[in-house]
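Before relying on records like the one below, remember that each one covers exactly one chain. Contacts with other chains, cofactors or solvent are not represented anywhere in the record.
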Amino acid sequence: MNERRLMRDRLVDVQGYAKIATEGWNEGDPDKALYWLEQVIKEAQGAIDYVLAPNVANNEHQA
């Protein structure tokens, strides 16, 4: 699987989780909203780590 597709899939996941979190908040269910907001954060952090990992490895190798 290429990197662009993987990142697009992660973005779709984040958007879906954010939508569910918003629905939970609008329904007056803060526990549901918080749970799905945590999923947004975890997925976004995973995407950030994935993007930065090759750069970190390259920088450490060059140092």
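The chain has a mean pLDDT of 84.
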